[in-house]
Fold this protein.
Amino acid sequence: MAEHSGGFLKSLEDFSTNVSPIDFVLIAQHYDLFLQGVVNTIALVVLSLVIGGVLSVPLAVARAYRTPVANQIIWAYVYVFRGTPLLVQTYLIYYGLGQFEIIRDSALWPFLREAWWCALIAFVLNTAAYTTEIFRGAIEAIPWGEIEAAKACGMSPWTRVRRVILPSAFRRALPMYSNEVIFMLHGSVVASTVTIVDILGAGRTLNAKYYLAYEGFIAAAVIYMILVFLISRGFKTWEKRWHAHLRPREI
Amino acid sequence: MDTVIAYMPNIIDGALTTIAVALGSVALSVVLGLLGAWAKLSKSRVAQGTGEAYTTLIRGVPDLVLMLLLFFGGQTLLNQIGDATGWWDYIEINQYTAGVLTIGFIFGAYMTETFRGAYLAIPRGQVEAAIACGMSPALVFIRVVWPQLVRYALPSFGNNWLVLLKTTALVSVLGLQELVYNSFTAGRSTRQLFTFMFVALIIYLVLTAVSDVGLRWLDRRYNVGVRRS
């Protein structure tokens, strides 16, 4: 690097390594590591939310309508996944499944051997359980008049669910669902315990590489805070759109 | 099955540690929650700002990140301060302390919202009436505010407790020999990880179920005198 232009950078680096308690230049130099972490975290969280969300809708409807047999099975599934730590569920799938020869010999083994897919499966099952409970509550809270009105219009039970009950329930569930999204982002740190380089994993890698005590964790904490901020901002905008009919009318 | 029975004392031991971590941190979180609620409800701008910053920070950062930061970073920081000032010798934060401190600190933020909401649910007129009767602020708190604070806070407190209980599993990442750690080591040495993680899963379910019963009992006790529909 040229002497004159490097002067400022050099002193900045000097300050960062020797004076500042946090070596921010070192963090900035490893931006690609954290970028990889952000990509992994976002991919895991978004995929599990989408798949889990899609799975949870029929489960919630079956629970709300007290469908025989399915109701009890879904209740048990939700109870188990909400009553136990995500860490244990992830360990059970990633470390546990290899215990069975049938699984090791099956065609799915190339996937189930990979930490990434195992984490995804655990996250999907976990968020689907929580979301089922959220949607079930929202469906059961529907004002009876809306269903009566739909019946009076001559809608079939299926049309009623599709056109009246679900749209109304989704609106009601939105504030609670935004909490679930943030919990899922927080929960996704479990991925770093099964060798995945997510945001926390990137921080841990940096710390291990340079024998640091906190730089990597602080960088990770800041990135998570930014993501949470963006998510809650996004949901506020979404809520404003979906709950537009509830706002006092402007004169 | 025989291997599970052979390792059972070890796993029960871990479960007891898990319960100890949970109880220690819930106690800390209640204290912090009351302080936080008091700060957020106070008239002082500084206290309000501190309370607000506390709850925002905690909701933004995942628990494990804070835990690792405190366990590794906090220890280094403390020793750097000790080195520089000579006030104390080498300090080691053990895993139990780090776990209880971080989990207590995190759930203190959630408890802040719990207690704040509960306090706001108490009708103002009751506090005014108590003051009009000539009660001192301490007496108003003990006789009028606290019993109702507990009543209104209980449902949300119960939720927080159940989440906290599951969060304690993360302490195993620090190396504390609690339920997950002990089950994992047992599973690895017998090459039966599924079996042992499943045992851990069942124990967590039992703990949740027992908590449910206990919380329901508390709820009934603190709602004596309230008409239920």
Remarks:
- Residues 31-64 of chain A form the longest helix (34 residues).
- Chain A has one domain: 33-237.
- The mean pLDDT of chain A is 89.
- Residues 77 and 83 of chain A are 10 Å apart (CA to CA).
